[in-house]
Amino acid sequence: MSTVLAASPPPMSRRLARPAKGALGLVLFLALWQASVPLVGLEPYFYPAPADVWRAFLDLVTKGILPVYLIDSIGRYAGGVAIGTVLGIACGLAIGISRLADRTLSPAINFLFAIVEVAWIPIFVIWFGYGFKTILIALTYVVFFPMLYNTLVGVRTVPQVLVNAALSLGATRLQLLREVILPAVLPNIITGFRVGAGFAFRGLIFAEIVAAKSGIGYLIFEGAANHQTARTIVGMIVMGLLWLGIDNLYLKPVERMTVERWGSVTTAERRE
Amino acid sequence: MTRLARHLPGLLPFAAAIAFWLVLPQAIDYPTYMLPPLGQVIDRIGESVMDGSLALHVRDSLWRLALGFAIGNGIAIPLGVAIAMNRHVSDLLRPLLTFLQSIAGIAWVPLAIIWFGIGMGSVVFVIANTIFFASIHNTVTGVQSIPNTLHRAVRSHGGSGVQVLTELVLPGALVQIILGLRTSMAYGWRALVAGEMIAGTSGLGYMTIEAVQWYKTETILMGMIVIGLLWLALDRILFVPLENATIRRWGMIRR
User: Fold this and answer.
1) Distance between CA atoms of residues B40 and B19, nearest Å
2) Is the ipTM of this complex over 0.90?
């Protein structure tokens, strides 16, 4: 954007104008959608209007369905992401520190990484049945591989000079890990976390469509299966808001915090 | 160390997994459908290759992916450039695009089934939708990250609007657009497999999920292996050379 160049902050009017225009865009979209419904003249189950969607939303809230589904989804997501992150970092560090382990395990990791989580869900269903266990394991799997992979790359690119310097100054293995390797790997870990969290969110929705009886993914699927299309769209909108919430309230602050703390700005996207 | 010796340790985990798989049925008793013996999976692969059914599924999947990729990017890249070049339009549309991007993909499958029915149409719609939103975001970012000084420089040297587009905007955004192609393919691939599982009538995803109903675990495992190998092949054949030719050459690799 043009603001990249501006040495001084943009004038107040423009800073205000941009979100306002964005909001205008959303309102225009909704208005066009609502106006197009009588023109298209299709069944509401085929092409529901925003007003139908709003009614379905109120209905789902007053019946208490939506809050329960939302809590289920968030619980599964948080659990899977947490377990996958911890396991991924631990394995990444362990493998990364040893060159032999790296060489031995990398091809297998690359292969497993290529079998997308979506493809694992059928066999997880066979092994663990439908429900919470399968979803949790699938999400753990989704997060584990980007975490492992990025941690591994990070450890591999720590300059040997730094390791030697720390060791020759008498650092123990533990100190080496804590003072040199972990700080150097942190930006990679954050990258892995963002990638993993993004894929895990889509994985969550898919897993809930295939293997659950509650949650936002189930709401989206069930609505369409029962020709309550407005419910499906409520589910999609809630899903979008949930992801934007996770991204803006959680992932981006974490990224900013660590990037500022370690002073290693890597993202080009920041320049917007 | 020679090349071969360097790659040799990498085969160990595969060998260990195969050995484990061979020994397990002898060591403990468990229902075969949980993990059929390796021999059965190999037989299944042999059968499916011989009777041509595997090739049909692979062909259907790849055809849908190619179609979705072409439609998604064919709309996203021109539209992305057009949006990004006009500040008013991009201010207007950006939040909407961000929002739609966050629901893009698998969540559209149920709606797609209502609109297009089970089968080809739904799956291609979902792939194209996924790829569109992944790609347009990268295109817009790519165009907007071109410094304004360069715009002014081209203009003050008498460049026309078309020249701004061909000489500045497209080359300047190319790296980001190519990154977008690759990212969108990764999302599109997942959308393909997932879409076929929910709304497919053929293809690798359909083959795999269909087998769950009949507890034909050897078919599930075959599906996973083929999905993994195919993705590695796609990535190596399409994107690694493309990146080498462009991003690496211009020294903009970011990893």
Assistant:
1) 15
2) no
